[in-house]
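Inputs:
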Amino acid sequence: MSDLWSALTLVLIALLGGIVRVSTPFLFVSLGECLTEKTGRINLGLEGTLVLGAMTGYAASYLTGSPWLGIGAAALTGMAFGAFHAILCQLPRVNDIAVGIALIQLGTGAAFFFGKPFIQPTAPHMPSIALGWWSSNPDLQNALLINPLFPMGIALAIFLRWAFRNTYWGLIVRTTGDSEPAARDLGVSVNGVRLAATSIGGLLAGIGGAFLSLSYPGSWNEGLSSGQGLMAVALVIFARWDPVHCFYAAVLFGTAGAIGPALQSVGVTQGYYFFNAAPYILTLLLMVASGRSKRAARDMPRELAITR
Amino acid sequence: MVAPSKVGSWSLSVSTWLHYRAETSIIPALALLASAAYFSVFLICLGKSPGEFFFLIARGGFGTLFSWQNTLVRAEPLILTALCVAIPARMGLVVIGGEGALVIAGFSAGAIAIPLDQSVAPMFITLAMGLTAVVVGACWIGLVGWMRHARGVNETISSLLLTYIAIAIVNFFIEGVLRNPADPNRPSTKAINPDAMVGAIPGLHVHWGLAAGVILAVLLYLLMDRTTFGFAARIAGGNPRVAEAQGLSVGQLIVTGCFIGGACAGLAGFFEVAAVHGRANAALHANYGFTGILVSFLARHSPLAIIPVACLFGGIGAAGGLIQRRMELPDATVLLLQGVVFVTLLASETLYGRLPFFRATQDSHT
Amino acid sequence: MTIRTDQTAPGRAIGLDVSSVSKMFGSFAALKDVDLKVPAASFHAMLGENGAGKTTLVRCITGYYHPDHGKIAVDGHAVTIASPRDAHRFGIGMVHQSFTLVPSLTGAENLVIARTDRPLVFHWDSELKRMNEFLERMPFRAPLDVPVWTLSAGEKQKLQILRQLYLNQRFLILDEPTSVLTPDEAEELLGRLRDMTRAGELTICLITHKLREVRAFADEVTVLRRGEVVGVGRTTDLTNADIARLMVGDTPPPSRWTSRKPAQPAGHPAFEIRGLAADRDDGMAAFRDIQLAIQPGEIVGIAGVSGNGQSALLEALCGQRAAVSGEVWAHGERVPPTRAAFAKHRMFSLPEEPLKNAAVGRMTVAENLALRTFDRAPLAKGGWLSSAAMRRQANDLIGRYRIKTPSPSAPIDTLSGGNIQRTVLARELSGDVGILIIANPCAGLDFTSTDAIHAEIMDQRNRGGGAPRFRGPRRDPGACGSRGRHVRGAHYLRRINCGHRSRDNRTLYGRRKDGRGCYLISRSDERGALFVLANGAFASGSAAHHFVSDRSRADIAGPAAISGRS
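Outputs:
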């Protein structure tokens, strides 16, 4: 019995650490996509931005020795990629969804191409905040080594929600996504707002990617990301375009993704692939559940033509 | 205005038809040239020679009979996975799950061969494998269509998610229950009976899958462009509201289209297992599905045009090894090139109706 | 010019003086030497048919267009209005007919976002305080704390006006503001606005079709026709007939269609709607409990304004919107929204906005012409399409309906709007039509085509089909049905009886119980019952005098049909 209890405790501790780690990239990418979708555009290319950000961050950290510069480089790359998406989608007759798919391929291709020399070497990781100093349990201490990006992400979520309600630009973002004619009537450049929002969205996705390579799993290779960017897009719909709900959803996905490794830490290795597949299955189920929901239709920015 | 004489009106219609068709061939061709130009600039910045690059593609893909065979072998799955994108696209859906359907269908084919191995004649094994793959592939993408129709789920995201799920499922079985004990280093299912494998087209060292792909492309072209089903599907793809007002069942059309597309991808998986590898393993996940997306877009989702475009990309892929060795470029070069082509192609969509040549001729008619 | 940013101090009405403004679009003269003089604190009405130039003039005043010639003076000072921003600065505000409020924002957020001094951060406490103070001084209110999409049309309209006042715009142009309001609301709104003009706080320029409103509230009228000012005067000096004649011109438009009494039916109604109900896209109810029966040979008109359920009703009848409950019947049988059922009962439809709802842009003209017939002989044999047969059908229809296209293989989205509509008409009207459902068929077409199309429709009716027709607010003169149904407010049909006729037998009236009348005009000779969609339960025909908005009728009148009585 006590074995079971101690195993359970170990799993829970590992899960705790895992949730924070796995949910951080989801958090950043989904906040970025939330901002983009609030202006009425969907950016599926975030998967490519994520991978490119991961590679750039890792490369920059390796080359300069500073992980923070790595984050910065990833942010800039992500921003440029997001801006690219916005500029392409601005052109008449260009399909946003197809552009997103194309950018996934371009981003991934570029990341793999330039990232070849960085697969072997180790780059300096991001420092963690040790929140577990009060415990004597080394596992718990380990689990509570939190990357500073996680609390930054939470702060960002709270800030975005506040900004959407209380700042001029937040209201403009909501206006652009809800009613283009109203935005134009106010003298706002719809394309300009979308360009800015998509660029910032890309910036955040780049940072999310850098987290993957500079913190957890903490290395650069070609199998690093598998769909996190995509799931973040689905996550935003599920979160009803509210930044704080994006945080909750990111934690949910983080839990789903952390169960597998947590169980592995106590030696449960069966069903490894099932746990791998858990986040995707979860995403799919959530999308099916919220697909025809009337509330989703009401909360959706009306200019967003996701299901066309 | 329709000209009075029958012959005159016929020739006017033909010329206008050619005119509109020309726009749809010239603009993608321009996009291809432009992306070649961009990539050349990129190569120059890296200190490599674009001339050598394209020369190697020409040679490695299309230079000798051997390279042609290589190209055609690669083109076959591209045709089929591109069809998996093209048919739903004609119905207005952007489905990119061909990779997943290929993987899981190929795996199912390999799996079903195992119990049948000793008990049934090889020909029937092949048949069973083929049927299984087609059905599994069809259902996999059909699920995407159903989710879109019944629950309004975005098909691009769901088909990509299903791809990841398919890979996970297949990996689970290959490394677990169905793992071939004979080869501990490379996880795969048991090899199928060599007699049950699909052979090569006589004279050509390319398996029958190529013929199947080409025939299927032609058949699907006929289906989409010459039958009432295809007409109804195109209405649903062009304007679902009109389709509904005409009493067409958009949901049925969407799901059927996805079934057909999935069947094509499934067939690709079948040939990968039954003709190329002889077993289901990680080599199934070779990114044919993703390249197939680009092939379909470049062919503007037309089944006939997919055949030459697939050969083009098959050639580029075939030349990949040569380029890697001779020019010391990483294998991701082809991936990057494809990304550039895709982005340029999509950006070129904006040129429709805006190029002075085509627009001037339109204005003169109205 | 002082730039107004202070919302709390009461404003002062400003006047507008537009002289000799002209505007050309290519070779088309939208405005020719137009003068508009609106003294400060007056209530001015601008009238004219569709295409008369009202919208163009207003766009010049509000800075969306630049006039080619002419001068504009605000409050006595000559100004150049180069952009909507300039117009705002000078105090000119416009309330559009379609809402430019942001649906998911609250009323307060909508107000605040339009402010010219854009503070980076809003402090809601002080903002709300200011807004409440502002509202105190306003004659009407709108809820500020809920998202705008939950508001009724009337509340949205009030909010739009409040927004302009909040921004201290003291010259307000209102474009058909009461089209979405109930008559009580319209009365109240215009009344209050008129009070504000009397108090010197506001100048109003009202664009409307409703002569009754002009009579009741406006001081002066300017009438435009074909880009020119054809009449200016005080409302006390002009009769309704004068105004109507100015709007339409002296000769009533020729009409080629003949009306005919439909034979009295025996047996089943040609078309029946039984208890149909459907929802809008966001889940709110679009309409409920619609009951309607149309006899063979009848044309039934359903009039209404946008947002009141008529588009949803049309979509439900055509199968584009799932019905929540109720059924559609024809010839005694239930009609599911399937192709076979449409074909069996020979049901055809002409929706509004043809390129969006009735044509597939990327397909060719020939293919679009074949949308109804592609799966039957001679175009199809055993599942295979015959392109030769399709081409033959296309050439035939192109000739008969005079569709201007370079060839049948041209993609339909390269045609002009009128030709796209002709293509749709050719497809839907050329067959053997049993039931025809039409919405706004003539939007955007010139007068001759409109007439031709109405002739076709009447032709179909005379051949024994039944046709429920839908009409929106901007209707062309010269068309109507033998019975009218009014779809507005939300959801239910209320029937009224028209009992009265005018002396010339051309006009039917409906009168309210309290004597405040309104007009229904019908060119047909039959008496018909009219149905009204209003916020209430279905009331049967016992109600003798129920309200019907005159909105739907006044603009379809020729000069002879509008006569006195306010």
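Remarks. The first strand of chain A starts at residue 129 and ends at 130. Residues 14-299 of chain A form a domain with the ABC transporter involved in vitamin B12 uptake, BtuC fold (CATH 1.10.3470).
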